[in-house]
Specification:
410 residues; alpha+beta; Phosphorylase Kinase, domain 1; Aminoglycoside 3'-phosphotransferase, Chain: A, domain 2; 2 domains; two-stranded antiparallel ribbon; 14 helices; 12% strand; globular; Aminoglycoside_PTrfase; transferase activity; Phosphotransferase
Length: 410
Protein backbone atom coordinates (compact mmCIF):
# COMPACT_ATOMS: atom_id res chain seq x y z
CA UNK A 1 0.00 0.00 0.00
CA UNK A 2 1.28 3.48 -0.81
CA UNK A 3 2.51 5.61 2.08
CA UNK A 4 -0.17 7.70 3.74
CA UNK A 5 1.19 11.15 2.73
CA UNK A 6 1.36 10.17 -0.93
CA UNK A 7 -2.06 8.54 -0.79
CA UNK A 8 -3.51 11.72 0.71
CA UNK A 9 -1.77 13.77 -1.96
CA UNK A 10 -3.39 11.66 -4.65
CA UNK A 11 -6.76 12.05 -2.96
CA UNK A 12 -6.26 15.81 -2.93
CA UNK A 13 -5.80 15.86 -6.70
CA UNK A 14 -9.01 13.87 -7.01
CA UNK A 15 -10.95 16.19 -4.71
CA UNK A 16 -9.73 19.48 -6.21
CA UNK A 17 -9.91 19.67 -10.02
CA UNK A 18 -6.75 21.10 -11.52
CA UNK A 19 -4.65 20.72 -8.38
CA UNK A 20 -1.10 19.59 -9.15
CA UNK A 21 0.66 18.43 -5.98
CA UNK A 22 4.41 19.07 -5.87
CA UNK A 23 5.11 18.29 -2.23
CA UNK A 24 3.67 16.85 0.94
CA UNK A 25 4.47 16.91 4.63
CA UNK A 26 3.05 15.56 7.85
CA UNK A 27 0.19 17.31 9.62
CA UNK A 28 -0.40 15.77 13.01
CA UNK A 29 -2.42 18.42 14.83
CA UNK A 30 -5.42 16.17 15.49
CA UNK A 31 -5.15 12.45 16.18
CA UNK A 32 -8.81 12.03 15.25
CA UNK A 33 -7.82 12.41 11.59
CA UNK A 34 -5.33 10.97 9.14
CA UNK A 35 -3.98 14.16 7.60
CA UNK A 36 -1.22 15.77 5.57
CA UNK A 37 -0.29 19.16 4.15
CA UNK A 38 0.24 19.28 0.39
CA UNK A 39 1.51 22.09 -1.80
CA UNK A 40 1.22 23.03 -5.45
CA UNK A 41 4.34 25.15 -5.25
CA UNK A 42 2.48 28.33 -4.33
CA UNK A 43 -0.15 27.48 -1.73
CA UNK A 44 -0.58 24.80 0.91
CA UNK A 45 -3.65 22.68 1.60
CA UNK A 46 -4.75 20.31 4.35
CA UNK A 47 -6.12 16.86 3.46
CA UNK A 48 -7.96 15.04 6.26
CA UNK A 49 -9.71 11.67 6.56
CA UNK A 50 -11.62 11.11 9.82
CA UNK A 51 -10.57 8.06 11.82
CA UNK A 52 -13.78 7.67 13.79
CA UNK A 53 -17.48 8.23 13.37
CA UNK A 54 -17.29 11.05 15.92
CA UNK A 55 -14.66 12.76 13.80
CA UNK A 56 -16.74 12.28 10.65
CA UNK A 57 -19.77 13.85 12.33
CA UNK A 58 -17.61 16.76 13.43
CA UNK A 59 -16.19 17.13 9.93
CA UNK A 60 -19.69 17.17 8.45
CA UNK A 61 -20.70 19.96 10.82
CA UNK A 62 -17.59 21.93 9.99
CA UNK A 63 -18.27 21.68 6.26
CA UNK A 64 -21.68 23.25 6.86
CA UNK A 65 -20.14 26.01 8.93
CA UNK A 66 -17.41 26.81 6.42
CA UNK A 67 -20.03 27.00 3.67
CA UNK A 68 -22.09 29.38 5.81
CA UNK A 69 -19.08 31.67 6.21
CA UNK A 70 -19.44 33.12 2.74
CA UNK A 71 -17.25 35.74 1.12
CA UNK A 72 -19.18 38.58 2.74
CA UNK A 73 -18.78 37.15 6.24
CA UNK A 74 -15.11 36.39 5.76
CA UNK A 75 -14.42 39.91 4.50
CA UNK A 76 -15.30 41.45 7.88
CA UNK A 77 -13.26 39.00 9.95
CA UNK A 78 -9.73 40.20 10.86
CA UNK A 79 -8.31 36.69 10.51
CA UNK A 80 -8.27 33.83 8.03
CA UNK A 81 -10.81 31.01 8.05
CA UNK A 82 -10.21 27.67 6.28
CA UNK A 83 -11.96 27.29 2.95
CA UNK A 84 -13.31 23.92 1.83
CA UNK A 85 -11.99 23.18 -1.66
CA UNK A 86 -13.17 19.66 -2.36
CA UNK A 87 -14.32 16.28 -1.08
CA UNK A 88 -13.63 12.81 -2.45
CA UNK A 89 -14.30 9.24 -1.40
CA UNK A 90 -11.60 7.52 0.65
CA UNK A 91 -12.50 3.90 1.27
CA UNK A 92 -15.64 3.91 3.40
CA UNK A 93 -15.07 7.48 4.46
CA UNK A 94 -14.11 10.70 2.69
CA UNK A 95 -11.16 13.01 2.30
CA UNK A 96 -11.73 16.75 2.67
CA UNK A 97 -9.32 19.35 1.32
CA UNK A 98 -9.18 22.81 2.87
CA UNK A 99 -6.83 25.76 2.68
CA UNK A 100 -3.96 25.69 5.17
CA UNK A 101 -3.94 28.48 7.76
CA UNK A 102 -0.40 29.47 8.69
CA UNK A 103 0.60 30.62 12.15
CA UNK A 104 1.83 29.30 15.45
CA UNK A 105 0.03 28.22 18.58
CA UNK A 106 0.35 29.71 22.05
CA UNK A 107 0.10 28.48 25.60
CA UNK A 108 -2.78 30.16 27.38
CA UNK A 109 -0.85 30.07 30.64
CA UNK A 110 1.88 32.22 29.07
CA UNK A 111 -0.50 35.15 28.60
CA UNK A 112 -0.24 38.17 30.89
CA UNK A 113 -2.61 41.08 31.30
CA UNK A 114 -0.20 43.32 29.36
CA UNK A 115 0.52 40.83 26.57
CA UNK A 116 0.33 42.28 23.08
CA UNK A 117 -2.03 39.44 22.18
CA UNK A 118 -4.77 40.66 24.55
CA UNK A 119 -6.21 43.25 22.15
CA UNK A 120 -6.19 40.87 19.13
CA UNK A 121 -7.99 38.24 21.21
CA UNK A 122 -10.70 40.74 22.11
CA UNK A 123 -10.98 41.81 18.47
CA UNK A 124 -11.25 38.19 17.35
CA UNK A 125 -14.10 37.47 19.76
CA UNK A 126 -15.91 40.70 18.94
CA UNK A 127 -15.60 40.13 15.18
CA UNK A 128 -17.18 36.68 15.41
CA UNK A 129 -19.96 37.87 17.69
CA UNK A 130 -20.70 40.87 15.47
CA UNK A 131 -21.43 38.70 12.43
CA UNK A 132 -25.07 39.01 11.32
CA UNK A 133 -27.43 36.22 12.36
CA UNK A 134 -28.18 35.61 8.69
CA UNK A 135 -24.82 33.85 8.41
CA UNK A 136 -26.14 31.04 10.59
CA UNK A 137 -29.74 31.22 9.41
CA UNK A 138 -28.95 30.97 5.71
CA UNK A 139 -26.37 28.27 6.39
CA UNK A 140 -28.87 26.06 8.20
CA UNK A 141 -26.93 26.26 11.46
CA UNK A 142 -28.43 26.05 14.96
CA UNK A 143 -30.17 29.17 16.25
CA UNK A 144 -30.42 29.17 20.04
CA UNK A 145 -32.21 31.78 22.08
CA UNK A 146 -31.24 32.88 25.57
CA UNK A 147 -33.87 30.43 26.83
CA UNK A 148 -32.27 27.60 24.85
CA UNK A 149 -28.85 28.36 26.35
CA UNK A 150 -30.37 28.39 29.81
CA UNK A 151 -32.07 25.03 29.23
CA UNK A 152 -28.86 23.46 27.93
CA UNK A 153 -27.03 24.48 31.10
CA UNK A 154 -29.93 23.21 33.21
CA UNK A 155 -29.89 19.80 31.51
CA UNK A 156 -26.15 19.43 32.12
CA UNK A 157 -26.58 20.32 35.79
CA UNK A 158 -29.43 17.81 36.10
CA UNK A 159 -27.26 15.07 34.60
CA UNK A 160 -24.45 15.88 37.03
CA UNK A 161 -26.94 15.88 39.90
CA UNK A 162 -28.18 12.44 38.85
CA UNK A 163 -24.72 10.99 39.58
CA UNK A 164 -25.30 11.79 43.29
CA UNK A 165 -21.70 13.03 43.40
CA UNK A 166 -22.40 16.74 43.08
CA UNK A 167 -21.89 18.63 46.36
CA UNK A 168 -25.13 20.18 47.54
CA UNK A 169 -23.52 23.62 47.79
CA UNK A 170 -22.33 23.50 44.19
CA UNK A 171 -25.64 22.09 43.01
CA UNK A 172 -27.53 24.92 44.70
CA UNK A 173 -25.06 27.45 43.35
CA UNK A 174 -25.36 26.33 39.73
CA UNK A 175 -29.12 26.02 39.95
CA UNK A 176 -29.35 29.50 41.40
CA UNK A 177 -27.49 30.81 38.35
CA UNK A 178 -29.81 29.13 35.86
CA UNK A 179 -32.86 30.14 37.88
CA UNK A 180 -31.85 33.82 38.06
CA UNK A 181 -33.67 35.19 35.05
CA UNK A 182 -31.75 38.49 35.03
CA UNK A 183 -28.57 36.61 34.16
CA UNK A 184 -30.14 35.18 31.02
CA UNK A 185 -31.48 38.42 29.62
CA UNK A 186 -29.01 38.76 26.77
CA UNK A 187 -29.01 39.14 23.01
CA UNK A 188 -27.77 35.96 21.29
CA UNK A 189 -24.89 36.37 18.87
CA UNK A 190 -23.09 34.32 16.27
CA UNK A 191 -20.59 32.25 18.26
CA UNK A 192 -17.71 29.95 17.37
CA UNK A 193 -18.95 27.42 19.92
CA UNK A 194 -15.74 25.53 20.66
CA UNK A 195 -13.18 28.29 20.93
CA UNK A 196 -9.97 27.81 22.88
CA UNK A 197 -6.26 28.42 22.42
CA UNK A 198 -5.83 25.31 20.25
CA UNK A 199 -8.18 26.76 17.62
CA UNK A 200 -6.23 30.00 17.21
CA UNK A 201 -3.23 30.66 14.98
CA UNK A 202 -1.02 33.61 15.84
CA UNK A 203 1.95 35.45 14.37
CA UNK A 204 3.71 38.61 15.50
CA UNK A 205 1.27 39.09 18.38
CA UNK A 206 -1.74 38.96 16.07
CA UNK A 207 -4.42 36.35 15.49
CA UNK A 208 -3.90 35.17 11.91
CA UNK A 209 -6.49 32.41 11.76
CA UNK A 210 -9.26 30.58 13.59
CA UNK A 211 -9.93 26.85 13.10
CA UNK A 212 -12.46 24.32 14.38
CA UNK A 213 -15.77 25.77 13.21
CA UNK A 214 -17.90 22.65 13.71
CA UNK A 215 -20.08 24.31 16.37
CA UNK A 216 -20.73 27.65 14.67
CA UNK A 217 -24.20 28.82 15.66
CA UNK A 218 -26.23 31.61 17.18
CA UNK A 219 -26.03 31.34 20.95
CA UNK A 220 -24.62 32.77 24.15
CA UNK A 221 -21.47 34.87 23.55
CA UNK A 222 -20.33 34.03 27.09
CA UNK A 223 -19.64 30.48 25.88
CA UNK A 224 -16.77 31.78 23.73
CA UNK A 225 -15.29 33.68 26.67
CA UNK A 226 -15.28 30.87 29.24
CA UNK A 227 -11.94 29.37 28.15
CA UNK A 228 -10.14 32.62 28.98
CA UNK A 229 -10.71 31.99 32.68
CA UNK A 230 -8.02 29.35 32.37
CA UNK A 231 -5.49 32.13 31.72
CA UNK A 232 -6.03 33.74 35.11
CA UNK A 233 -8.06 36.61 36.46
CA UNK A 234 -5.96 39.48 35.12
CA UNK A 235 -5.93 38.13 31.58
CA UNK A 236 -9.65 37.41 31.57
CA UNK A 237 -10.53 40.89 32.79
CA UNK A 238 -8.12 42.53 30.33
CA UNK A 239 -9.76 40.76 27.39
CA UNK A 240 -13.27 41.27 28.74
CA UNK A 241 -12.88 45.05 29.10
CA UNK A 242 -11.55 45.41 25.54
CA UNK A 243 -14.19 43.06 24.17
CA UNK A 244 -16.96 45.04 25.87
CA UNK A 245 -15.69 48.27 24.34
CA UNK A 246 -15.70 46.75 20.86
CA UNK A 247 -19.24 45.41 21.20
CA UNK A 248 -20.70 48.21 23.30
CA UNK A 249 -21.55 45.73 26.03
CA UNK A 250 -22.97 47.18 29.23
CA UNK A 251 -24.05 44.03 31.12
CA UNK A 252 -20.57 42.79 32.01
CA UNK A 253 -21.63 41.28 35.33
CA UNK A 254 -24.17 39.00 33.67
CA UNK A 255 -21.76 38.13 30.87
CA UNK A 256 -19.02 37.24 33.31
CA UNK A 257 -21.32 35.19 35.52
CA UNK A 258 -22.47 33.02 32.62
CA UNK A 259 -18.87 32.62 31.42
CA UNK A 260 -17.88 31.53 34.93
CA UNK A 261 -20.77 29.05 34.99
CA UNK A 262 -19.77 27.54 31.64
CA UNK A 263 -16.19 27.37 32.88
CA UNK A 264 -17.20 25.47 36.01
CA UNK A 265 -19.56 23.20 34.09
CA UNK A 266 -16.49 21.76 32.36
CA UNK A 267 -15.90 19.97 35.65
CA UNK A 268 -19.42 18.57 35.42
CA UNK A 269 -18.55 17.25 31.96
CA UNK A 270 -15.37 15.71 33.38
CA UNK A 271 -17.40 14.09 36.15
CA UNK A 272 -19.91 12.70 33.66
CA UNK A 273 -17.11 11.34 31.50
CA UNK A 274 -15.64 9.51 34.48
CA UNK A 275 -18.99 8.08 35.51
CA UNK A 276 -20.08 7.07 32.01
CA UNK A 277 -16.71 5.50 31.18
CA UNK A 278 -16.58 3.76 34.59
CA UNK A 279 -13.19 5.34 35.30
CA UNK A 280 -12.95 5.70 39.07
CA UNK A 281 -9.78 7.80 38.93
CA UNK A 282 -11.43 10.44 36.71
CA UNK A 283 -14.57 10.39 38.82
CA UNK A 284 -12.59 10.81 42.02
CA UNK A 285 -10.56 13.63 40.51
CA UNK A 286 -13.70 15.46 39.39
CA UNK A 287 -15.28 15.07 42.83
CA UNK A 288 -12.18 16.60 44.42
CA UNK A 289 -12.32 19.53 42.03
CA UNK A 290 -15.99 20.10 42.83
CA UNK A 291 -15.19 20.10 46.54
CA UNK A 292 -12.61 22.82 45.97
CA UNK A 293 -15.19 24.94 44.16
CA UNK A 294 -17.11 25.33 47.41
CA UNK A 295 -14.53 27.84 48.65
CA UNK A 296 -15.43 30.34 45.93
CA UNK A 297 -19.18 30.36 46.57
CA UNK A 298 -19.02 33.54 48.62
CA UNK A 299 -17.46 35.62 45.88
CA UNK A 300 -19.72 34.05 43.27
CA UNK A 301 -22.65 35.08 45.44
CA UNK A 302 -21.48 38.68 45.22
CA UNK A 303 -21.83 38.55 41.45
CA UNK A 304 -25.28 37.03 41.68
CA UNK A 305 -26.38 39.71 44.08
CA UNK A 306 -25.17 42.46 41.75
CA UNK A 307 -26.87 40.81 38.79
CA UNK A 308 -30.18 40.52 40.62
CA UNK A 309 -30.16 44.14 41.81
CA UNK A 310 -28.83 45.53 38.56
CA UNK A 311 -25.98 47.24 40.43
CA UNK A 312 -22.59 46.95 38.74
CA UNK A 313 -19.66 45.53 40.68
CA UNK A 314 -16.93 47.84 41.84
CA UNK A 315 -13.48 47.45 40.35
CA UNK A 316 -12.20 45.82 43.54
CA UNK A 317 -15.12 43.38 43.55
CA UNK A 318 -14.48 42.41 39.94
CA UNK A 319 -10.79 41.82 40.64
CA UNK A 320 -11.63 39.81 43.75
CA UNK A 321 -14.17 37.74 41.83
CA UNK A 322 -11.77 36.95 39.04
CA UNK A 323 -9.02 35.98 41.48
CA UNK A 324 -11.40 33.54 43.17
CA UNK A 325 -12.66 31.98 39.95
CA UNK A 326 -11.25 28.43 39.79
CA UNK A 327 -9.00 27.81 36.82
CA UNK A 328 -10.31 24.96 34.71
CA UNK A 329 -8.65 24.10 31.43
CA UNK A 330 -11.23 24.26 28.65
CA UNK A 331 -11.37 20.64 27.57
CA UNK A 332 -14.03 18.34 26.23
CA UNK A 333 -13.71 14.67 27.03
CA UNK A 334 -14.48 12.16 24.33
CA UNK A 335 -17.94 11.73 25.85
CA UNK A 336 -18.54 15.47 25.99
CA UNK A 337 -17.41 15.85 22.41
CA UNK A 338 -20.46 13.90 21.28
CA UNK A 339 -22.70 16.01 23.52
CA UNK A 340 -21.29 19.25 22.13
CA UNK A 341 -22.48 18.45 18.62
CA UNK A 342 -25.99 19.74 18.12
CA UNK A 343 -28.68 17.25 17.12
CA UNK A 344 -29.30 19.30 13.99
CA UNK A 345 -25.80 18.31 12.83
CA UNK A 346 -25.96 14.60 13.50
CA UNK A 347 -25.46 12.79 10.22
CA UNK A 348 -26.14 9.07 10.63
CA UNK A 349 -23.06 7.87 8.86
CA UNK A 350 -21.78 4.39 9.59
CA UNK A 351 -18.03 4.89 9.23
CA UNK A 352 -15.30 2.43 10.06
CA UNK A 353 -11.98 3.49 11.44
CA UNK A 354 -9.29 4.50 9.00
CA UNK A 355 -5.85 2.98 9.22
CA UNK A 356 -3.94 4.54 12.16
CA UNK A 357 -0.89 6.70 11.65
CA UNK A 358 2.56 5.15 11.77
CA UNK A 359 3.96 4.07 15.11
CA UNK A 360 6.10 6.60 16.97
CA UNK A 361 9.06 4.28 16.74
CA UNK A 362 9.36 4.61 13.00
CA UNK A 363 12.11 6.63 11.42
CA UNK A 364 11.43 10.29 12.17
CA UNK A 365 12.87 11.24 8.81
CA UNK A 366 9.79 9.82 7.12
CA UNK A 367 7.71 12.60 8.69
CA UNK A 368 9.85 15.37 7.27
CA UNK A 369 8.91 17.41 4.24
CA UNK A 370 8.92 15.50 0.97
CA UNK A 371 9.70 17.58 -2.07
CA UNK A 372 8.80 16.21 -5.46
CA UNK A 373 10.53 17.20 -8.68
CA UNK A 374 7.53 16.21 -10.79
CA UNK A 375 3.79 16.46 -10.24
CA UNK A 376 2.54 13.52 -8.24
CA UNK A 377 0.20 12.50 -11.05
CA UNK A 378 3.22 11.92 -13.30
CA UNK A 379 4.84 9.61 -10.75
CA UNK A 380 1.89 7.26 -10.55
CA UNK A 381 2.14 4.42 -13.02
CA UNK A 382 -1.49 3.51 -12.59
CA UNK A 383 -4.60 5.06 -11.04
CA UNK A 384 -5.04 4.69 -7.32
CA UNK A 385 -7.76 2.21 -6.54
CA UNK A 386 -9.43 1.27 -3.29
CA UNK A 387 -6.59 -1.11 -2.42
CA UNK A 388 -4.25 1.86 -2.19
CA UNK A 389 -6.46 3.73 0.23
CA UNK A 390 -6.32 3.46 4.02
CA UNK A 391 -8.18 0.28 4.92
CA UNK A 392 -10.85 -0.11 7.56
CA UNK A 393 -9.83 -2.37 10.44
CA UNK A 394 -11.81 -4.58 12.76
CA UNK A 395 -12.58 -3.50 16.30
CA UNK A 396 -10.32 -6.20 17.74
CA UNK A 397 -7.37 -4.82 15.77
CA UNK A 398 -7.79 -1.29 17.05
CA UNK A 399 -5.07 0.09 19.30
CA UNK A 400 -5.83 0.54 22.97
CA UNK A 401 -7.68 3.81 23.58
CA UNK A 402 -5.53 6.63 24.94
CA UNK A 403 -5.36 7.08 28.68
CA UNK A 404 -7.07 10.28 29.75
CA UNK A 405 -5.07 12.67 31.87
CA UNK A 406 -6.63 15.26 34.10
CA UNK A 407 -7.14 18.19 31.69
CA UNK A 408 -7.84 20.56 34.54
CA UNK A 409 -4.56 20.08 36.40
CA UNK A 410 -1.78 22.51 35.58
Amino acid sequence: MASIPFTLAALATSAVPGLVVLGTRAHGEDEEYVSAVVTDGNDEFVVRIPRTQAAEIQQSAELLSLAALNEGARSVLPFAVPESLGVTRAGDSRAVVTTFIDGGQFDIESLAEDSLLIQPLAETLAAIHNLPHQVAQQGGLPIRSATDARLQATRLIDRAEATRLLPQTIQDRWKHVVETSELWDFAPAVIHGSLDASQLRVSNDSVTGVLGWSELSVGDPAADLAWLLGAGSDVFEAVLVRYAALRDQSMLTQLHTRAALYHELEIARWLLHGVESHDDSITSDAVGMLDRLVDSVGVFGTVLGAAETGEPLSEDEVVSLLEETPEVTDHLSETAAFEALDEDRMFGIDTDFIEPLRETGEDESEASDTQLTEPIDDQLTEPIDDDDLPEAIDDEDLPEPPQFENPFQK
